[in-house]
Design a protein that fits this description.
- By secondary structure, this protein is α/β, with parallel strands linked by helices.
- It has 2 domains: 4-213, Aspartate Aminotransferase, domain 2 (3-Layer(aba) Sandwich); 216-365, Aspartate Aminotransferase, domain 1 (Alpha-Beta Complex), CATH 3.90.1150.10.
- The chain has 10 helices and 13 strands.
- The strands form 3 sheets. Strands 1-9-8-5-4-2-3 form a 7-stranded mixed beta sheet, sandwiched between helices.
- α2 (28-38) packs across α3 (55-63) and α2 (28-38) crosses α5 (169-179).
- It is globular, with a radius of gyration of 21 Å.
Amino acid sequence: MGSDAISRFEDAFAAFHDAKYCISTSSGTTALWVSLKAAGVKAGDEVIIPAYTFIATASAVLMANAVPVFVDIDEKTLNMDPELIEAAITEKTKVIMPVHIAGNPANLDKICAIGKQHDVAIVEDAAQAHGAQWNDKKVGAIGKGGIFSFQTSKNMSAGEGGAIITNDDDFKEACFSYHNCGRVSGGEWYEHQHLGGNFRLNALAASMLMPQLDSIGTDMDLRDTNKQRLDDTLAEIDGIDLTGSYEQTTRSAQHLYIVKYKKDAFNGIHRDVFFKAMQVEGVYTYAGYSPLYREKLFVTDPDEYPWLKNRDYASLSLPVTERICDEESVWLQQSHLLGNEDDIQDIVDAFIKVTTALKNEPELFR
């Protein structure tokens, strides 16, 4: 707002994702809050989210004075399991917010159909999914709208920043207001119709992001190539299971490379031992997320979040999420997928060396 650099970036980012509008924001987290408010979320409403995602997906719901309702993920893609959503819908459900985990699209056909059937808005958390496609359509504006993050770890980065895209005129106007101190398009500078904040992107960040739209296609091609090279080899290792995509996924953004470690194939040796052995080989792997409902903020003093007082998150158990988080998930950062052939071969060699030793020489790891 008030900057040609910001306007140019918003127009270009919207065009890149085949959307009518883009509202840039100060972060992905603020983009989530703005989107929830623009979708009509009010105090006490419920928002359905996956339990396997970054904390901002849930904290934005809390910041809107709403209630996060967690559902489990599917084994194949690690995305929100669409078969579990309808059971989580109540008369208070206002938004379903799928997360395109690791840049791999959630099942938008099923999720959008559920939203339409129950008159519940779909807001896509596409923080990791720049350029990802579902049925040949870029994600982000397939539902009512979607958000992206430009935090330092993302495939497009300005250090911090975010964006909301949409094809919905009313949603766009509401997002504009909530991200701009409650002002409205065409209104007076000191006219504030909503409880919004100063959540605008700055011009320097917009200027940093603009040239990345010229290079993201090349970067995505390289990520695709390197992901396939890793898949081709790791698929042959018994005990390392690849994650998959839905049939309708035209393209993943490849933000993370995630595989599943099956300890029974490695003499019952814990995943943490695998991580340490990979580190010795010069390849950093890690577990990633914990189930969100285990975070301390969900078991804190109920006086801080009184609208959660009837929620017993401590007793919640989502088996797939817990198994993936506690035992199986192995992450490689997206920067690994931008390496050259030698870099990818180093990763492959480390996987082969470590997994072979875990199987054939388990005494080395006891």
